[in-house]
């Protein structure tokens, strides 16, 4: 009889604690239903969860799982940007690189459980944006945007580390006028 009472007491104590510690996605914003290619998108999430360190992915992890038009799955990790009372605020940025239909959902994982949202879709249309800049594999003199447009950086190459007098002297030697001579 004592064992039955002890087990019942433990169950009563465990169940409320287990229900309190469940992770909850209280609110989140979605991407636009239609976005331009290379246009940055931003989602905000409000989460109620038990964790110690929001910067430890073993403690809490917020992911955006995206299915691209070409069939790839991208996992974009969320970032923590604050807490008020028991609610933590998270953000996720994403920039679509392909034109077509995307689908996505959020995954929130803590040490006690994992939750998923329903799947949401959006469409990406063609854009005149240039997107991201990369090294150009075809030339050592230019960079290349994702759009294919070339970018040539120019400027004065003057090497003077942490020495402003040296810097302005060399600028003067190459014909640059400045007020610091």
Written description of the protein model:
It is a single chain. This protein has 2 domains: 23-125, Immunoglobulin-like, CATH 2.60.40; 133-173, no CATH class. The chain has 181 residues and is of the alpha+beta class. Strands 2, 4, 5, 8, 9 and 10 form a 6-stranded mixed sheet that branches. Strand 11 (133-135) and strand 12 (143-145) form a beta hairpin. The model is unreliable at 4-20 (pLDDT under 50). The protein has helices spanning 2-20, 164-173; strands at 24-28, 34-36, 40-48, 60-67, 73-77, 79-84, 87-95, 100-110, 114-116, 120-125, 133-135, 143-145, 150-151. The longest helix is centred in the N-terminal third of the chain and has 19 residues, at 2-20. It is built from 2 helices and 13 strands.
